[in-house]
């Protein structure tokens, strides 16, 4: 059964012992699952999906208890992605599992080759607090589709959702297939001591480095979905209504606590005032025109805890002390874990908000007059998880796509790349390693085994005792021109 290691009765020694026991029990299951068929795996995913949907009310209640997440956000950002992920795997798994034939090179004439997808084995999924349900069960679908066992470690910062997920996993799976351990960082440390075959981590770049260092001790492969400061560009040709609506939706869903949320916006000086006016009007309509209305809004989640509220408030205070101007919002209540949806400009170059990931409802807006300047600033920062461009000028769009890099990107939209199951989702360098979702998630949890089958061997002729015949030397010399 899933064990609640957050209990005060569970010591660190108990945790390590229990983790070692479950990890060892999954060994035999992982070996058995190597021979699992598509039908076997699909049946497990169907069981997961159906039970997951049946628990909809539980996900609503737990999301609200942890940070007043509105039911609509739970539907769109927690439940829907998992169900879509499961349905995609159910429909396509048979084709994903089929060996992929490859044509031989000239050097390998007389052979056939193919790629065989094998389960990695025992996998660890470490999920974050901002979308705990989605970012736990989405990767789990991929792990099951690829034929693996899994141990899950959710964040302790959302205890109601972690407890709900623990109950769910216990009800749906035997622990030699899927197990979940609750607890703090000591539990994560104990898990990372085990020689997993793959680790799928979603969280901050700082903790991602810790996970990667631990994985290196066992040469364990990793998928790291991290974060970063995702820039957004609104040029002079953009549809300002569309830009404001999509940027604010992407930014303030989950109160800004989204790894791919627009972190800051570069707006062409010619349209900056008009863009800000559109944003202010939309904020008033969505959440209310004053802080009391915004506090009472059923559509605005809260910051996850007091520590993060203080951290975001500190970024705001630091920016204001350097001369930043509040264009909208600015209200803070530490006790209520509340920070109003806030627009800022006139931010000093040395402000902390320019270099630290905000992960909250503060949106810096920078005016620009030359796209060169924006591209230079984006390329001077660590590579982001996402980049967004709002423009109706194809040359500007193409230039930004060509001269910058990011894990993913949207043109005239934001955030929706996560929901596109046919695209890889992941970062680059500091924003992540590897990809997830759909076929890419299946491959992340699979080993691509290269197989060569000999039908007509040249090796016997090449490596037979004695001198290579002259006719074969001539053939090889001719072939080298084409290799």
SSE arrangement:
Blueprint: E1 3-4, H1 12-33, H2 38-54, H3 56-67, H4 71-97, E2 100-102, E3 111-119, E4 122-126, H5 134-145, E5 149-153, H6 159-172, E6 178-182, H7 185-192, E7 198-202, H8 205-218, E8 221-225, E9 231-234, H9 240-252, E10 264-268, H10 272-287, H11 291-296, H12 306-321, E11 325-328, E12 332-333, E13 338-339, E14 342-345, E15 362-368, H13 371-380, E16 386-390, H14 394-403, E17 408-411, E18 432-433, H15 438-444, E19 446-454, H16 459-462, H17 470-480
Parallel strand pairs: 1-6, 4-5, 4-7, 5-6, 7-8, 9-10, 9-16, 10-15, 14-15, 16-17
Antiparallel strand pairs: 2-3, 3-19, 8-18, 11-14, 12-13
CATH topology of the largest domain: Aldehyde Dehydrogenase, Chain A, domain 1
Give the end-to-end Cα distance, rounded to a whole number of Å: 56 Å
CATH architecture of the largest domain: 3-Layer(aba) Sandwich
User: What fraction strand?
Assistant: 15-25%
- CATH H level of the largest domain: which superfamily? Aldehyde Dehydrogenase, Chain A, domain 1
User: How many individual helices?
Assistant: 17
Condensed summary:
This protein is of the alpha/beta class and 483 residues long. The protein has helices at residues 12-33, 38-54, 56-67, 71-97, 134-145, 159-172, 185-192, 205-218, 240-252, 272-287, 291-296, 306-321, 371-380, 394-403, 438-444, 459-462, 470-480, and strands at 3-4, 100-102, 111-119, 122-126, 149-153, 178-182, 198-202, 221-225, 231-234, 264-268, 325-328, 332-333, 338-339, 342-345, 362-368, 386-390, 408-411, 432-433, 446-454. It folds into two domains: 3-226 and 434-448, 3-Layer(aba) Sandwich (Aldehyde Dehydrogenase, Chain A, domain 1); 231-426, Aldehyde Dehydrogenase, Chain A, domain 2, CATH 3.40.309.10.
């Amino acid at each position: 059964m899933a064990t609640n290691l957050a209990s005060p009765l569970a010591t660190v020694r108990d945790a390590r012992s229990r983790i070692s026991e479950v990890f060892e029990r999954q060994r035999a299951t992982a070996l058995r699952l190597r021979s699992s068929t598509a039908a076997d795996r699909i049946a497990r995913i169907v069981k997961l999906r159906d039970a997951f949907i049946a628990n909809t009310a539980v996900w609503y209640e737990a999301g609200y208890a942890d940070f007043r997440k509105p039911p609509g956000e739970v539907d769109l950002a927690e439940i829907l992605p998992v169900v879509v992920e499961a349905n995609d795997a159910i429909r396509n798994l048979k084709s994903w599992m089929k060996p992929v034939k490859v044509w031989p090179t000239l050097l390998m004439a007389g052979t056939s080759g193919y790629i065989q997808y094998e389960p990695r084995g025992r996998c660890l999924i470490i999920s974050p607090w901002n979308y705990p349900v989605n970012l736990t069960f989405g990767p789990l679908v991929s792990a099951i589709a690829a034929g693996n066992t899994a141990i899950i470690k959710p964040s302790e910062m959302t205890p109601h959702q972690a407890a709900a997920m623990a109950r769910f996993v216990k009800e749906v799976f035997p622990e030699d297939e899927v197990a979940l351990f609750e607890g703090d960082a000591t539990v994560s440390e104990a898990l990372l001591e085990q020689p997993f075959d793959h680790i799928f981590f979603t969280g901050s770049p700082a903790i991602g480095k810790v996970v990667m260092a631990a994985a290196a001790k066992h040469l364990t492969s990793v998928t790291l979905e991290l974060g970063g400061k995702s820039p957004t560009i609104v040029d002079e040709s953009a549809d300002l209504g569309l830009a404001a609506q999509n940027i604010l939706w992407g930014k303030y869903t989950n109160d800004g606590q989204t790894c791919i949320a627009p972190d800051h916006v570069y707006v062409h000086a010619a349209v900056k005032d008009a863009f800000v006016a559109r944003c202010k009007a939309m904020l008033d309509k969505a959440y209310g025109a004053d802080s009391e209305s915004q506090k009472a809004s059923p559509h605005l989640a809260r910051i996850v805890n007091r520590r993060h509220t203080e951290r975001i408030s500190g970024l705001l205070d630091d920016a204001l002390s350097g001369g930043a101007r509040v264009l909208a919002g600015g209200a803070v209540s530490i006790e209520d874990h509340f920070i109003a949806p806030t627009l800022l400009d006139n931010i000093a170059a040395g402000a902390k908000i320019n270099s630290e990931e905000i992960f909250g409802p503060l949106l810096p807006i920078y005016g620009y007059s030359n796209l060169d300047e924006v591209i230079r600033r984006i390329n001077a920062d660590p590579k982001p998880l996402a980049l967004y461009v709002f423009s109706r000028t194809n040359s500007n769009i193409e230039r930004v796509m060509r001269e910058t890099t990011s894990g993913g990107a949207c043109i005239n939209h934001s955030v929706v790349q996560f929901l596109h199951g046919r695209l890889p989702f992941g970062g680059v360098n500091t924003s992540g390693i590897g990809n997830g979702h759909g076929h890419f998630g299946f491959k992340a949890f699979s080993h691509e085994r290269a197989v060569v089958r000999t039908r007509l061997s040249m090796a016997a002729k090449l490596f037979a005792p004695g001198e290579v015949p002259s006719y074969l030397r001539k053939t090889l010399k001719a072939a080298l021109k084409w290799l």
